[in-house]
């Protein structure tokens, strides 16, 4: 019991030191209280008639997870139109998509260039592929059919029903993460600070194509260059995670359309990628999780 209290205290103090803003800290505390009482967990008042597409960018290290991710999409409580897998050309993945009636998108055709267009490394580690993934997620409006689409990280599996629009408002999920360079990048790109007081990096997000286009148009008008070049320009050899597509889009929406969103706690668990089948059986019995993320980096 004493150890539990000690860990809780360290977490509280760590969050306060990291955020360096009393108001942001209070907002985080409120979010934790909401999570304790399962606020927003159930899909009450969900707009189940809303048609959405689902976009899953993936890379070779996550191919092992793809079938688990696809099968878990049944938990999305909206009318799913099409599922798109965006990835490097791979015979096995393309055959899988064909068999499952999923649309395969060659990642190199989306933006007109590949990750070699990006020069971004930190400490000798190539981060161009990671940044390229951010751009792909912000480009779903180029190929989806529906006005609204959900982007899901390819290492994250739904284990309970989840909703992305309630009472005419889009749902963003607030997490414990706080990474200052993401906020610095946002202010650099737009010229004004982000307004969200909690992180909205949640391994998934609903995008509205009209809002996304408007955001990218704003970037291009401000910088007089393609929006993706603006995002790429946030990279630094001193920072391995320079910008977040989720943090960028959600903060832009909150600033411009404050009446169109609501923030709920993020009901997710990170899990070491050892045996997904065994853990999914366990996770499915956990009443208060929306998703489980099998992050490859947790093995380290």
From TrEMBL:
<dbReference type="InterPro" id="IPR045499">
    <property type="entry name" value="DUF6492"/>
</dbReference>
<dbReference type="Pfam" id="PF20102">
    <property type="entry name" value="DUF6492"/>
</dbReference>
<protein>
    <recommendedName>
        <fullName>Nucleotide-diphospho-sugar transferase domain-containing protein</fullName>
    </recommendedName>
</protein>
């Amino acid at each position: 019991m004493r150890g539990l209290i000690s860990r809780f205290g360290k977490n509280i103090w760590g969050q306060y030191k990291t955020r360096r803003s009393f108001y942001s800290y209070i907002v985080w505390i409120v979010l934790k209280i909401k999570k304790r009482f399962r606020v927003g967990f159930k899909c009450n008042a969900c707009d189940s008639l809303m048609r959405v597409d689902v976009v899953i960018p993936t890379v070779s290290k996550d191919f092992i997870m793809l079938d688990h991710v696809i099968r878990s999409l049944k938990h999305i409580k909206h009318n799913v139109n099409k599922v798109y897998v965006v990835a490097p050309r791979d015979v096995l993945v393309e055959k899988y998509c064909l068999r499952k009636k999923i649309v395969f998108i060659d990642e190199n055709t989306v933006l007109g260039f590949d990750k070699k267009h990006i020069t971004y490394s930190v400490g000798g580690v190539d981060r161009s592929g990671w940044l390229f993934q951010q751009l792909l997620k912000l480009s779903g409006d180029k190929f989806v059919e529906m006005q609204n689409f959900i982007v899901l990280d390819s290492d994250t599996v739904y284990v309970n029903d989840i909703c992305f629009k309630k009472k005419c408002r889009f749902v963003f999920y607030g997490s414990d993460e706080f990474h200052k360079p993401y906020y610095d990048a946002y202010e650099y790109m737009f010229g004004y600070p982000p307004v969200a007081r909690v992180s909205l990096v949640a391994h998934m997000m609903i995008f509205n194509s009209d809002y996304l286009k408007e955001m990218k148009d704003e970037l291009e008008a401000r910088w007089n260059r393609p929006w993706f070049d603006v995002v790429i320009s946030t990279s630094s050899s001193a920072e391995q995670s320079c910008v977040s597509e989720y943090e960028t889009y959600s903060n832009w929406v909150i600033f411009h359309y404050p009446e169109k969103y609501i923030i709920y706690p993020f009901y997710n668990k990170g899990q070491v990628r050892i045996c997904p089948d065994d853990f999914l059986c366990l996770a499915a019995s956990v009443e208060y999780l929306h998703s489980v993320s099998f992050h490859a980096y947790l093995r380290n």
